[in-house]
Design goal:
Number of strands: 13
Number of helices: 14
Strand order of the largest sheet: 3-2-1-4-5-6-7
Strand content: 15-25%
Radius of gyration: 22 Å
Distance between the termini: 18 Å
Length: 377
């Protein structure tokens, strides 16, 4: 598709993405901004955000309104429910469509259609967390209160966009939204950027059997099952543990929790790294482990498969759907350290790479902008 894809008269489109700062949400936001130029040079986009480095996207049909609020949760609630409406009134603008890239809609009334890009999987799982446990409080909020925030600004003609089939079914059940109001648009794997060589150097990878796991420090990312698996390997296969390194993007300031004395030499904390550096990890690593038990898609799985890395992932619907058809993927129970240890040992002994795999070779943002065209025609 080209710039001629959207041929309607100029429409005003509000894009609300004030919470995108890191991780998958930021990736979605940047991909969306990049795609406007390709798929819609006609309509006028007003982008509301709190994201450094995106002012460069200001163009004739893109207006970046940055630094919307300071206080995270209170600021977001006030903006979504009152601020965006006041901004529209003050600037004498009435949008023809609202796009929310952050799970929840905004309060501009039922007459303005909304497309809500939903990528928060926490409410869709059966796990229970405690409000009284400090570490679990934010998880309890997402599980128990977040669905209310999603449903309160979802109206009859709105559309929810999700990234996978399992999420479509789960959202329909948990959020009580009819299936015909939920569209599946899979995330685009930026193959061109993955293919670009990087100058980043990771000398420590050389000479070791290397496991990688690019993930945040949230409890559900489940790093501890890999730590326990490595402990088991250290007790039974000293020959392997002496030649193994586990590379994680966890910050070094939480290393004490994830680095027992027996594994001081085996765990490397890179902290938050640039995407170009992550590509080097994919190229040089021997295996990706992905023990998370709460994901929408698990984009690193797709990226690792592109590089032909062996993958050991949690045996959960998100992972099986993400790399369905990839011969290099194996699945184990997310909470079974012995199973993870066995798969790591198997990968160490096999030392095999696979053919590059992409489950979705097209740029699915074209589908998203086709949906926009349908909503504003």
């Amino acid at each position: 598709m080209s710039n001629s894809m959207i041929r309607n008269k100029k429409r005003i489109i509000f894009v609300n993405c004030t919470a995108a700062s890191v991780g998958g949400a930021l990736t979605v936001f940047v991909q969306f901004l990049d795609s406007i130029e390709t798929y819609d040079s006609v309509n006028m986009y007003y982008i509301f955000c709190n994201t450094p480095g995106v002012d460069q996207y200001n163009k004739n049909n893109i207006k970046i309104i940055n630094k919307i609020y300071k206080r995270k949760w209170i600021g977001r609630f006030l903006w979504d429910n009152f601020g965006i409406k006041n901004w529209a009134k003050t600037n004498n603008l009435k949008p023809d469509l609202i796009i929310s890239l952050q799970n929840t809609g905004v309060n501009l009334g039922k007459k303005v259609k909304q497309i809500i890009y939903y990528h928060q999987s926490l409410p869709m799982y059966e796990y229970k967390w405690s409000l009284w446990n400090k570490k679990e409080r934010i998880l309890w909020f997402y599980k128990n209160l977040y669905p209310w925030f999603v449903k309160r600004c979802f109206y009859r003609d709105d559309v929810l966009v999700v990234q996978s089939d399992w999420m479509k079914e789960a959202c329909s059940k948990v959020l009580n939204i009819q299936l015909n109001h939920i569209k599946v648009i899979r995330p685009s794997l930026q193959v061109d950027s993955l293919s670009v060589e990087s100058d980043a150097e990771f000398q420590n990878l050389d000479g070791f059997f290397s496991l990688i796991y690019p993930a945040s420090g949230m409890e559900y990312k489940n790093h501890m099952v890999i730590i326990e698996a490595l402990k088991q390997i250290s007790r039974t296969r000293q020959d392997i543990i002496n030649n193994l390194r586990f590379y994680t993007t966890l910050d070094t300031n939480i290393s004490e929790k994830y680095q027992p004395d027996s594994l001081k030499e085996n765990i490397v904390f890179w902290g938050n790294i640039e995407f170009s550096e992550l590509l080097q990890l994919y190229r040089k690593a021997d295996i990706m482990v992905f023990p998370s038990y709460l994901e929408t898609v698990g984009l690193p799985l797709l990226e690792a498969a592109f590089f032909g890395l062996p993958i050991v992932a949690s045996d959960l619907p998100y992972a099986r759907e993400a790399v369905f058809g990839y011969e290099g993927a194996r699945f184990v129970k997310f909470n079974d350290p012995s199973a993870w240890a066995n798969e790591i040992i198997r990968a160490y002994e096999n030392r095999k790479k696979y053919s590059s795999f992409t489950s979705n070779k097209k740029d699915t943002w074209s589908d998203f902008f086709e949906l926009i065209r349908e909503q504003v025609k």
